[in-house]
């Protein structure tokens, strides 16, 4: 089983939105998927409750501590043994032992961040916590950051975050724009990849780098189930390249690995 942790201690950054959309993507590809909801607000569980009968089933497990209980490692939640992908929806404010426990269980960690300077600052602090006390430094997990609720794809507020990520060598996968389609999806218990392809083309395109990053590293496990038109990485589109800083170009290869190159002069950046 592969475990994808969606986490940021900052509230409202898009953890549940990303977790539910990733889960619905894998479920729609007939990968046996479960969501583990660590958030006492239970937003992912609520999303699962309204999920229509006609879409693929996603198992849910409520891992949030009961009111008044300390969120410690003894926390238990059950998912079926045949689960292939488990997505963990982390709560806001996560730290300490729970943070360590979540990091320890994960193969991939995706950190959504909203574009305000306050969110970016809080996220930078969270990433420090993740490495200094969360065990990320020694964990097996691959870690990446995703911008969420962006109004302009090239918002300059990300400059400082990009520089910080560069210094840690963490990839910044994509910018997801603010879109009502995410609200519709949340309301109906579905994900973007289960909605009309034409009206969700922008959202699909923006989510694609996350899926490429994940799938590039575990595609073989699921064989042809993850091969589709939207995720094709053949021919001339073998590499996706994007800027991660003023003088660096990060290249995402067909195998899902990142390479960061210094780029001189600046004009040669793609
Ligand atoms: N890209 C987006 N476009 C439009 N609305 C969004 C987008 N991402 C998130 N939202 C909305 O923003 C709100 C907060 O998002 P979400 O619940 O996913 O954040 P969260 O990090 O899980 O919050 P919490 O820390 O409270 O658990 C929700 O109402 C969600 O529907
Ligand atoms: Mg949430």
Explain what you see.
- The chain is α/β, with parallel strands linked by helices.
- The chain has a single domain (2-227), classed as P-loop containing nucleotide triphosphate hydrolases (Rossmann fold, 3-Layer(aba) Sandwich).
- Helices cover 33% and strands 21% of the residues.
- The protein contains 7 helices and 10 strands.
- The strands form 2 sheets. Strands 3-2-4-1-5-6-7 form a 7-stranded parallel β-sheet, sandwiched between helices. The chain has a 3-stranded antiparallel β-sheet with strand order 8-9-10, covered by helices on one side.
- Strand 6, helix 5 (158-168) and strand 7 form a beta-alpha-beta unit.
- The site of magnesium ion has 5 residues, from helix 1.
Distance between the termini: 37 Å
Give the biggest sheet. 7 strands, parallel
Structural class designation: alpha/beta
Mean pLDDT, nearest integer?
82
Whole-angstrom Rg: 18 Å
What are the main properties of this structure?
270 residues; alpha/beta; Rossmann fold; seven-stranded parallel sheet; globular; binds adenosine-5'-triphosphate; binds magnesium ion
Quick structural summary:
The chain has 270 residues and is an alpha/beta fold. It is built from seven helices and ten strands.
Helix and strand topology:
Elements: E1 2-6, H1 15-28, E2 33-37, H2 43-49, E3 59-62, E4 85-89, H3 96-105, E5 108-113, H4 117-132, E6 142-150, H5 158-168, E7 172-177, H6 180-188, H7 201-222, E8 240-245, E9 248-252, E10 258-262
Parallel strand pairs: 1-4, 1-5, 2-3, 2-4, 5-6, 6-7
Antiparallel strand pairs: 8-9, 9-10
This protein binds adenosine-5'-triphosphate and magnesium ion.
Magnesium ion is lined by residues 15-16, 39, 43, 89.
């Amino acid at each position: 089983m592969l475990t994808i942790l969606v986490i940021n201690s900052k509230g409202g950054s898009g953890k549940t939105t990303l977790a539910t959309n990733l889960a619905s993507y894998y479920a729609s590809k007939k990968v046996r998927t479960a969501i583990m909801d660590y958030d006492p607000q239970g937003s992912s569980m609520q999303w699962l409750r309204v999920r229509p009968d006609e879409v693929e089933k996603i198992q849910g497990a409520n891992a949030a501590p009961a009111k008044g209980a300390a969120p410690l490692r003894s926390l238990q939640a059950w998912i079926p043994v045949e689960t292939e992908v488990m997505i963990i929806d982390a709560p806001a404010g996560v730290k300490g032992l729970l943070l360590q426990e979540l990091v320890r269980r994960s193969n991939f960690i995706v950190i959504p961040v909203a574009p305000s300077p306050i969110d970016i600052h809080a996220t930078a602090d969270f990433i420090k916590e993740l490495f200094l006390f969360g065990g990320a430094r020694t964990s097996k997990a691959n870690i990446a950051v995703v911008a969420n609720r962006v109004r302009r794809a090239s918002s300059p507020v990300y400059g400082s975050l990009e520089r910080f990520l560069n210094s840690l060598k963490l990839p910044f996968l994509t910018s997801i724009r603010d879109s009502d389609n995410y609200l519709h999806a949340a309301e109906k218990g579905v994900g973007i990849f289960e909605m009309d392809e034409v009206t969700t083309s922008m959202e699909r395109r923006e989510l694609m780098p996350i899926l490429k990053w994940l799938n590039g590293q575990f595609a073989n496990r699921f064989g042809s189930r993850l091969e589709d038109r939207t995720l094709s990485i053949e021919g001339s589109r073998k590499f996706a390249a994007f800027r991660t800083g003023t003088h660096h170009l990060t290249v995402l290869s067909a195998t899902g690995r990142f390479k960061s190159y210094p780029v001189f002069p600046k004009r040669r950046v793609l």
